[in-house]
């Protein structure tokens, strides 16, 4: 069983030139494209593809991860994307499970994509993410769906790190939140590069757990009147 700590993730990033595809996550693009850009918080930002995409779409981004290797790589990628992108992203090294971690900054979009932490720490992480959403802002949590535990595509083998969007939705106070999505979405995930001879990709259908909720309040950048 993996430990899920910073040393585990650092070793994983160190072992490969790129762990992730470099493309932004599908559910982020689907959900954030129609939002009015403001301040975004990307928690567990990894190699930075989502933060870079958000910056390219007008957001100012605070991107948090506890792997220094991941952040270094992410910063270099942002530099390559140009000053207008790099200048919009603040990379922050922090462990969101740490008991003494300072509060996360308030943001109009709080996104955590495939941030899987051990079950006993998930509640604390979740309340930090929830608290960070500004009035009128959006919480977007995307993870591997629990039904993917036995997928042929590489997935965490530890049942304890999965969460269900319905359970998260149940934690949100209806007076303060509007749940806009709490569901599983199927997606085809490639497992290796295109097979040019046959013109297709190998892979499998996977499921993303998606929770999107809006904190009641004036829409970001609008007055309360
Ligand atoms: C599965 S990766 C996803 C990376 C990125 N969001 C993406 O979708 O490509 C999970 C990321 O969360 C980070 N992470 C895991 N636990 C964390 C914690 N307690 N505090 C901060 N970052 C964490 C890991 O270092 C890793 O980069």
Strand order within the widest beta sheet: 3-2-1-4-5-7-6
Spell out the helices and strands N to C.
HHEHEHHEEHEHEE
Strands, total number: 7
Largest sheet: 7 strands, mixed
Instruction: Return residue spans where pLDDT drops below 50 for at least 5 consecutive residues.
Output: none
Estimate what percentage of residues fall within beta strands: 25-35%
- CATH fold category name: Rossmann fold
What can you tell me about this protein's structure?
This protein is α/β, with parallel strands linked by helices. It has a single domain (6-215), classed as Vaccinia Virus protein VP39 (Rossmann fold, 3-Layer(aba) Sandwich). Helix content is 28%, strand content 28%. It contains 7 helices and 7 strands, in the order ααβαβααββαβαββ. The protein has helices at 6-14, 26-32, 49-56, 68-81, 83-86, 119-131, 165-171, and strands spanning 39-43, 60-65, 89-93, 107-113, 133-144, 177-190, 203-215. Strands 3-2-1-4-5-7-6 form a 7-stranded mixed beta sheet. Bound molecules: S-adenosylmethionine.
How do the strands and helices of this protein lay out in sequence?
Blueprint: H1 6-14, H2 26-32, E1 39-43, H3 49-56, E2 60-65, H4 68-81, H5 83-86, E3 89-93, E4 107-113, H6 119-131, E5 133-144, H7 165-171, E6 177-190, E7 203-215
Parallel strand pairs: 1-2, 1-4, 2-3, 4-5
Antiparallel strand pairs: 5-7, 6-7
The protein binds S-adenosylmethionine.
The site of S-adenosylmethionine has 20 residues, from helix 3 and strand 2.
């Amino acid at each position: 069983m993996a430990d899920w700590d910073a040393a585990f993730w650092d070793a994983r990033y160190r072992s490969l030139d790129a762990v992730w595809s470099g493309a932004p996550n599908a559910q982020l693009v689907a959900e954030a494209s129609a939002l009015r850009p403001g301040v975004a918080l990307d928690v567990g930002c990894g190699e930075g593809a989502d933060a870079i995409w958000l910056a390219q779409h007008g957001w100012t981004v605070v991107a948090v991860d506890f792997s220094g290797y991941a952040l270094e790589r992410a910063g270099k990628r942002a530099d390559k994307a140009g000053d207008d992108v790099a200048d919009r992203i603040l990379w922050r090294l922090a462990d969101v499970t740490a008991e003494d971690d300072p509060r996360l900054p308030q943001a109009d979009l709080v996104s955590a994509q495939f941030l899987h932490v051990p079950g006993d720490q998930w509640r604390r992480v979740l309340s930090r993410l929830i608290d960070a959403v500004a009035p009128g802002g959006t919480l977007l949590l995307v993870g591997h769906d629990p039904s993917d535990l036995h997928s042929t595509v590489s997935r965490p083998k530890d049942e304890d790190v999965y969460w269900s969007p319905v359970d998260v939705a149940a934690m949100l106070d209806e007076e303060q939140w509007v749940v806009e999505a709490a569901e599983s979405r199927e997606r085809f995930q490639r497992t290796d590069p295109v097979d040019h001879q046959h013109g297709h990709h190998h892979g499998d259908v996977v499921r993303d757990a998606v929770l999107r909720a809006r904190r009641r309040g004036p829409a970001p950048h609008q007055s309360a009147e």
